[in-house]
Amino acid sequence: MNAVATDNLSRVFGALADPTRRAILARLSRGEAGVQEIGKPFRMTLPAISKHLKVLEKAKLIRRGKDAQWRPCALAAAPLKDASDWIGDYRQYWEESFERLDEYLKEIQSKEKNKGENDNGK
Question: Does residue 46 contact residue 35 with C-beta atoms inside 8 Å?
C-alpha cells in the first residue's frame, strides 16, 4: 500500500475511532441531512457537531453540498470499503488461527474422553 493510501486509511480509522462520528455515519447511511438534523440526537453544540463533520470530511467519509443556505451532508462510503479491505487482509489469519484452535480443542476433548473411558474400564 502506498504512503498516500496509508495516510487516507489513517484518517479513516482516526475518524471512526470516535463513537459520535460513527453515529453520524450511521445516520447519513439513511440519507443526506443538514447539520442541525445531524446534531439533534447529541448533547453538544452545533459547532462541536461541525468539528466532527470536518473530521469526517477530511477522511473523505462524507460530502458536503451547497444548496443556498442549506449545506447537506451525505455519506461517501468508498473509504469504508478501503478500511474493510484492509481489515479483510487479516481475516484469513484469524480464520486459520480459529481452525487450529478448533483442531486443538477437539484433540484435547478426544484425549479426555479416551482417558475417561480408560479410567472407567479399570
Answer: yes
Averaged pLDDT, 109-113:
87
- The string of DSSP letters for 41-55 reads TSSS-HHHHHHHHHH
For 19-26, the CB contacts below 8 A with 24+ separation are 20/44, 20/52, 21/52, 21/55, 21/56, 24/49, 24/52, 24/53, 24/56, 24/62, 25/56, 25/61, 25/62, 25/75, 25/80
pLDDT band at residue 83 using 50, 70 and 90 as cut-offs = very high
Q: Which of 57, 55, 46 is nearest to 15 (CA)?
A: 55
Query: Whats the size of the chain, residue-wise?
Result: 122
